[in-house]
Write a structure and sequence with these properties.
The structure is a homodimer. Chain A is mainly α. Helices cover 71% and strands 0% of the residues of chain A.
Chain lengths: 209, 209
């Protein structure tokens, strides 16, 4: 390391932010360390100051993804609803609303990484699993409260339904990639919302309609 | 090409069959031509006799996937039901039943390839889109017949619902990869089945239960 070189936490964040952009567009395996450095405007020296390997970087990128998306969802307006079912439906409407971008901008970093590496890199698989299940657990909290209030005798489990919402989102992203546009993903979110409404015997108009 | 070397259609099929095994386990980008040749027990000469590039191979592998899975579904017993709704529910039960394997054996070649290459390789994206939409169109035929018979006034479209079934499957595969087991995917198929039953106001027990 040259005496004049400084490595700041800001450079670490810039590298992790670059992962969101580059890996979501190119996939994990096709992304080279050089691609991340170029997107971040930083050197390989900086990369290897912060991360021991591309794999270590991917594990940290999954945690960074959880942090960035966690902040996005925590600040979203659907939390303001008093009724937990309105919060659940508001969450689904929010997920649908943020599809109005280019495909690489709305798809999921950890869904992409686990698709490629689940069998070859357990550390990345586990980091992606933590990210997906951690977000599902947040969704499950409101689903559990909504179930107690509106469907206490239902046989489905809130945790299972929360994981299902994430499966629908992940699959919707794949169809959006195949069709090169968000329309099919929006349709999938409409089916998911109808399912949740029917589980609660509770048709609600979308908050943006 | 050496005078003694022969390249048969059988070697082409062996290479394409190897794609199903290797790419589903390692992902598309991480798979090298050498990995395909090794799994098929064939030389790179044979590979490049049949395919001009790895990308050309991937496009042909997507078509091969449609052919192999098309035969599997065409031969499945759910087609024997007289009522199209029973065929739809039988299809979902069949999809759930074939999850009882190791993760790399039940996940989707074209879902994996399009996840990685949608933005960097239009030819592969389009080949994967043809495969997914082609299969969805088969599912849509029975859904359309079932809708005419059992839910003629419903506002949902058979084609959209068929695509939704494929999104749920693709997302269920991602969660199964993250969790390293099929259980979560089975749960997703149960949610999907319940949704279809509710759309038809028609609870049906699973054919294997």
């Amino acid at each position: 390391m040259a005496a004049t070189t400084t490595y700041t936490s800001d450079s670490r964040t810039r590298l992790l932010d670059a992962a969101l952009k580059v890996i979501r567009a190119k996939g994990y395996s096709a992304t080279r360390v050089e691609d991340i450095c170029e997107a971040a405007g930083l050197s390989k020296g900086s990369f290897f100051h912060h991360f021991t390997s591309k794999q270590h970087f991917a594990v940290e990128a999954a945690a960074h993804w959880s942090s960035v998306t966690g902040s996005l969802f925590a600040a979203a307006p659907y939390h303001d609803h008093a009724d937990p079912l309105d919060r659940v439906l508001g969450y689904l409407d929010f997920r649908r609303a943020i599809l109005c971008r280019e495909v690489p901008e709305f798809t999921c970093l950890v869904g992409t990484m686990v698709q490629e590496t689940y069998d070859t890199c357990p550390a990345i698989r586990e980091a992606c699993e933590r990210s997906i299940s951690g977000h599902a657990a947040e969704v499950a909290k409101d689903l559990e409260l909504a179930k107690r209030l509106h469907a206490p005798d239902a046989t489905w489990m809130a945790e299972s339904l929360a994981l299902y919402t994430q499966a629908v989102l992940q699959g919707a992203f794949i169809l959006a990639k195949a069709r090169n546009g968000s329309r099919v993903a929006e349709d999938c979110l409409d089916h998911l919302r109808r399912y949740v409404e029917m589980l609660f015997h509770h048709p609600h108009p979308r908050s943006d309609s």
